[in-house]
Amino acid sequence: MSEPLTMRSGPDKHLPDASAPAAAGPAVAFEGLSVTFTHPDGGRHEVLRDLSLEVPRGQFIALVGRSGGGKTTILNVLTGLLAPTAGRVSVLGMPPAEARASIGFVPARDALLPWRNAARNVEYGMELRGVERDERRRRAQHYLHLVGLEDAASRWPWQLSQGMRQRVALVRAWAVEPELLLMDEPFAALDADTRQSVRLKFRALLADGPARSVIFVTHDLDEAVLLADRVIVLSGGKFAADTPVPPRVGDDGTSDELTGDHLALLRELRNSLRDDPAR
User: pLDDT digits over 46-89, tens only?
Assistant: First the structure.
């Protein structure tokens, strides 16, 4: 397991210098992050309030909380699509907009390009980053194999099941070999059986190659505990819990069984959500 995530507070704590080399410092850091939306009628809604967080490189964070609680807003800030109302944000040692080339993103819906087959969809992100054609093809074949889709490489999106489409979307983001992967409820549209199958395939991706930093938004607490190194509960625009996940000793990535320690953690997380003032 990677280093623990660290919450920070106090005026003597500072973010890494955005001009520092990308290899230095945490994957994600923000201090005093607040986001307030202004409605057309002039009303204001504070979504995030004075959040501070540091995510070490190589750590997998699951971010859970109720709908409308600000989880996706955090992802939008980290991609540079949304500027914070207050606070400082660093992604891979840079301002978010400058780090985009090193970020992969997986949305809730696959958003595959209908005029490209599965392999060419996987290659798309690599094309945008200027990866040579032979290398694009090699990576596409490798990652499609890891998620059990090597025989579907030439199929069009309309010929794929929803679960297969979502696996292609996962591989498309993974194949650019991002330093940071952001995932916004990527399995939410799948039925229970398909969700479990795709989740296991995703764990095969996680086990392949060096550890990558992941921030994973989900409403499914079981999923958060099965996948993440640490689970953070967002409640009322603040962090209500920050809990490391017990090691999955002997787990080869092919089982979704939870140990007694994991079940105890689930009870703790459910209690945190039960106490959510927005409930």
Answer: 889 999 999 999 999 999 988 888 899 999 999 999 999 999 99
- Using alpha carbons, list the distances in angstroms from residue 277 to 166, 217, 235, 236: 34, 20, 7, 6
pLDDT (tens digit per residue) in 232-246? 999 888 888 899 998
C-alpha 233, offset from chain centre: 14
What are the beta bridge partners of residue 230? 61, 244
Residue 220, burial from CB neighbour count under 10 angstroms (0-12, 13-18, 19+): middle
Residues 6+ apart with CB under 8 A from 38: 44
Concatenated DSSP letters of 29-95:
EEEEEEEEEE-TTS-EEEEEEEEEEEE-TT-EEEEE--TTSSHHHHHHHHTTSS--SEEEEEETTB-
Give the 3-state secondary structure of residue 180.
strand
Q: Check residue 39 and give its pLDDT.
A: 79
Residue ranges and CATH numbers for the domains of the chain are 28-274 (3.40.50.300)
Instruction: Determine the residue type at 80.
Output: G
d(CA 37, CA 142): 43
Strands 60-64 and 230-235: parallel
Give the CA distances from residue 99 to residues 103, 104, 189, in Å, rounded to whole numbers and listed in that order.
Answer: 7, 10, 29
Q: Are the C-beta atoms of 192 and 223 separated by less than 8 Å?
A: no
What parts of the chain have a pLDDT lower than 70? 1-24, 249-256, 275-279
